[in-house]
Design a protein that fits this description.
The protein is mostly helical and about 300 residues long. It is built from 15 helices and three strands. Strands 1-2-3 form a three-stranded antiparallel sheet. One of its GO terms (molecular function) is DNA binding.
Length: about 300
């Protein structure tokens, strides 16, 4: 595995690992992440990773902790190195040495319905208003919004076709009449500007032949939040979190929400029960019950 940039020539080990990832259907972003993590490990070793020892792995993980590397990065490196050791090198003994870093899962920030409306209204232009409308109105991830094509909007069945979402899975997302109307407004404007190609990207980037970037969508959300006076930490994913939470507060079955979000595990979707204000408010607190009992037993005045 080379220790240079991603433009460096493939070594036999790196090429074999890339072939293993390809055969197992890992997504392009996952492949890039794995190569980057293994390259960092090789740079730490100053030699090829196929010569690593259990002590080398221990020293590398200790080095990460001592240098303030975050839990997500450490665990990403563990996933990459486990793939290298288990699949490519067939070294189960090395994979067993790797240690996952446990960290508490934070509750997602969620907008109120009123805040979501203000954010969309403050979006910088109809294209971004439509794109953020998809993130909130259909619960799509930012990469899924960016890679939608015109033909993915099925106005007959009122569905949005999401191709190769997270985990390389296809799914259908909901398309409400209001969202369809918003998309039609953008489609007409895009056609007028000459940026909407037949069968092309629904949200073109700076070039009509390229999709809008996730970075552009992040920037648009932050600009809209500032204009709308929303002080919460907001990103396109906040709109997806808000979509799920608001559906839960409308008494939509959590299993339906799981399907709409494309979650493989129900426990992932269940996280939204912890941020749903309606779920929390629906529970009678023990102090309220105690006070009610005390009032019933109080002697008449």
């Amino acid at each position: 595995m080379d220790t240079q940039s991603t433009d460096a020539p493939n070594t036999p080990l790196r090429q074999r690992m890339q072939q293993d990832m390809l055969m197992r259907g890992l997504g392009s972003h996952t492949q890039q992440d794995y190569v980057r993590h293994v390259r960092r490990f090789a740079a730490f070793l100053r030699r090829s990773p196929d010569t690593a020892t259990p002590e080398d792995i221990r020293r590398f993980q200790l080095y990460q902790h001592e240098n303030g590397v975050g839990p997500a990065t450490i665990n990403g490196a563990v996933s990459a190195l486990r793939f290298l050791f288990l699949v490519t090198l067939k070294r189960r003994d090395l994979a067993r040495v790797l240690v996952i870093m446990r960290h508490p899962r934070k509750l997602p920030d969620v907008l109120s319905v009123e805040e979501a409306a203000r954010l969309l209204e403050a979006a910088p232009g109809i294209k971004y208003k439509a794109a953020l409308g998809v993130a909130y109105g259909a619960g799509l991830r930012v990469s899924e919004v960016a890679h939608l094509k015109v033909d993915d909007i099925d106005s007959t069945r009122m569905l949005i076709r999401v191709e190769q979402g997270k985990g390389r899975k296809d799914r259908n997302a909901m398309l409400s009449p209001q969202l369809l109307e918003l998309l039609r407004l953008w489609w007409r404007e895009g056609r007028r500007r000459g940026v909407m190609l037949p069968h092309g990207w629904l949200f073109p980037g700076r070039s009509c032949t390229d999709p809008i970037s996730s970075r552009q969508l992040h920037r648009a959300v932050q600009e809209a939040a500032e204009v709308a006076g929303i002080r919460k930490r907001v990103s396109p994913h906040t709109l997806r979190h808000s979509f799920a939470t608001h559906l839960l507060e409308q008494d939509v079955d959590i299993r339906v929400i799981q399907v709409l979000l494309g979650h493989s595990k129900l426990e992932t979707t269940a996280l939204y029960t912890k941020v749903s204000t309606r779920t929390i408010h629906a529970v009678a607190g023990p102090l309220d019950r105690l006070m009610a009992l005390m009032e019933d037993k109080s002697p008449p005045g």
